[in-house]
Amino acid sequence: MRLPLSPANTALLLTVLDELARLGGRPVLVGGLVPPLLVAALAPDDLADLAPRSTNDCDVAFLSDAGAASFEACCTAMLALRFTPVHQFRWKHAGGLLVDAMPVPAGVERGDAPAVAFARPFLRDDPARFYRGYELALARPVTVRVEVDDGTTRPVPVAGVTSMLAMKLQAFLDRPSDRQRDAQDVVWLARHLDPDVIGADLVACHPTRAELVAEVVARLEQHFVDPWGRGITAYFEQAFRGRTSFDEEARREGGAAAIGSLLAAYRRLR
Fold first, then answer.
1. pLDDT in tens, 74-126
2. Which pairing describes strands 28-30 and 59-64: parallel, antiparallel, or unpaired?
3. Which CATH number describes the domain made up of 1-159?
């Protein structure tokens, strides 16, 4: 599958991944680029449209040992690739590509003191909340094939289904009025992936991240099962903004039914 970027920016993003990997960062793609890549990898016959939404975001998470030296080495690599720091983790290339390169210190989600101390200078939010799902993304990536300009493909690691759901739910619930696009991503994944695929991934993640899986399931149940609930309302308003020809009740019920199906599959497969 091609990324929704120019050939030059696709090549540049892949170079960023290679550089971070060379430095030991085990980088994975996260964010808005990932949902269509997951569907292309896990259910290619069901990829009816390119993406749940258009995005210019290129979000990359990479493992950090919570040491200044490793982070500085990654910053040096970005500068060598002609990126300029913008703010927080964001970098802008001379050619226009924006990359959020986010160091993930091991143990940050469980509140390990060195990891939290490393992350706090970069963040306004609580580090454990900001990084919700990121450590799982690094531990259990999905490899997808990305097409490059010469027509060949190369493997790229991306966040898996459970980690994406955890990230998207956290982002949406932290700022529901500003992050409706994350609710849209949650429902889009549920509509385009087989419920058994999502349920099986939740089950597979349970032995090592039981608390995260339980949180994802509870948040889906609370906000996305009711067609008129908070999550489905945000999905509907984002996905159908500006459109006039559709059956609102059917669209809402379809989104809620997709969430209900994945939850039922999870319970059956446990």
1. 999 999 999 999 987 899 998 889 999 999 999 999 999 999 998 888 887 88
2. antiparallel
3. 3.30.460
